[in-house]
Design a protein that fits this description.
heterodimer; A: 116 residues; mainly beta; seven-stranded mixed sheet; four-stranded antiparallel sheet; 0% helix; globular; B: 112 residues; six-stranded mixed sheet; 11 strands; 53% strand
Chain lengths: 116, 112
Amino acid sequence: DGGITQSPKYLFRKEGQNVTLSCEQNLNHDAMYWYRQDPGQGLRLIYYSQIVNDFQKGDIAEGYSVSREKKESFPLTVTSAQKNPTAFYLCASSIQRVTTSTDTQYFGPGTRLTVL
Amino acid sequence: RKEVEQDPGPFNVPEGATVAFNCTYSNSASQSFFWYRQDCRKEPKLLMSVYSSGNEDGRFTAQLNRASQYISLLIRDSKLSDSATYLCVVIPASGGSYIPTFGRGTSLIVHP
């Protein structure tokens, strides 16, 4: 089955530790995105990538880093510099590079990160 | 003013009721519009796109009003399974890069 997978589903870390969230897609999509969702809030864009080896900052990139070494994979690292990292993290992908306004996004199941 | 605004609700309706949500957007150059559904503690899933002429999918009808800069979602004959949060998504036109902007969502609770 084609889709987007994120692992793990739940993640607990101590304050001050870096943590990497996995996102893999086998949809052959060019574009991938990372969002953060806090309770009662909308999705906020952290980073996006339109093509392998290229990525752009979103609205709240501070304290996060990403890589896009393969088309299928877009891991997100939450660094110790992120002041309030506890949140629901969602990865998404879309068929094309972000050059068409009609393209829709498909989401992975998300990772709930709790920093203790 | 926020780019995309939605009434968070919750809208509490009985089964069989008709309910409508609105979503306003601030960027008049916005190109595309979508409604997503998000169940509790799950990922958002595309419900429907919103076309200029309006579109219908079963019990769901979406409309766009460019003059007043809002989109709407109408749900007829509500089912218990319609209980969820409905996210409005707007794609603005910005320098050739079309990054979606999400509203905070409207919560719908359908009760027996």
